[in-house]
Amino acid sequence: MTGQVFLHGYQAWFDMNLLNGIILMGIAASWVITFGKEVPYHNKISNGQDIKQNITLLIVWNWSRVAAWTIVAILQLYYLQQYMT
Question: Is the dihedral of CA 66, 47, 49, 52 positive or negative?
Answer without folding.
Answer: positive
